[in-house]
Amino acid sequence: xxxxxGRQCLPQGRSSPHPRCSVPTRSxxxxxxxxxxxxxxxxxxxxxxxxxxxxxKPKQWVPPRDILKISPxxxxxxxxxxxxxxxxxKASFDAHLSGMFMPVNLDYPGLRILNIDPPVIAVEELxxxxxxxxxxxxxxxxxxxxxxxxxxxxxxxxxxxxxxxSTLAATSEVLGKxxxxxxxxxxxxxxxxxxxxxxxxxxxPGAFARPSAAGQFAFELPQVARYQPGQHFLTHEDAFPxxxxxxxxxxxxxxxxxxxxxxAEGGATRFDVLDIxxxxxxxxxxxxxxxxxxxxxxxxxxxxxxxxxxEKWVTQLWTSCGVATLAHNNxxxxxxxxxxxxxxxxxxxGRKRGVPPQRVNTKV
Length: 364
Description:
oxidoreductase; L-ascorbic acid binding; Pro_4_hyd_alph
């Protein structure tokens, strides 16, 4: 996979779970906050006699802002191969995925790590050329490719320049009426099950239903998208902001994006905060995590589908999970407090082609 790297932005004094990262390795990462709200320690001495004891206040959980990269040399060669890394480093990254995001099968063939935190993973040849062709042929034969919707992060956008591609939304009803499309996308679904670990939805039509209960997983609304020359999808995030999570009752936890054709130039997927851009290669895929395990969106995963030079085809699959929320907690999960940005976001402004994303995105 051809990977392009911008400037390096490693946090000072940050430990790394991988010996070949750009910062020194330490045996533990004590600076990482837990996604589960810890209870404040009880005071060693009780209150004076006659005064009621005040209940301990829960500590606030704040989303991580640091970025932990692999070395530029490794990134330039396609990423870090966990099978060639030491068992301790591999186990550390596995624990990081399981504790903060979602478990992944790090032994999957062709898997490469492009970024440690937030995790960005590439998979070479997730689909064969014939399987990619089958998805594109079935999508075109369905006659359902339409102008892409303009909902970004769960709220409507009026600027038509933000997303200019065409999309097929493969709902359960659509898959039921188009067996060719159902079979083609079923291959990607099978690969997703082999790549992801942990609780996944059961086989059958219910696998594509949106989660209806807290802790329930589902593969949400597979899509096939086509970008014609000059089309793009400007800076956006796949996760929902907290108020939308409260309305929907679920959050997108993982994005699996597979490229269905080759793009020699243009059409790269660029992670704006990470300064990493991935050029599409037929059959290769990207796996990243739009939200944390507690349902709070991770704004470090903001990304852009850059202008296509030639036609570009992709298919994507979201793994979503039901989230328990409290209405009086600004739509945040019931065990999360003190997270900024809980108000309903304003309509984002579309970014003109060729203009870098606002630098406010580098601190989230």
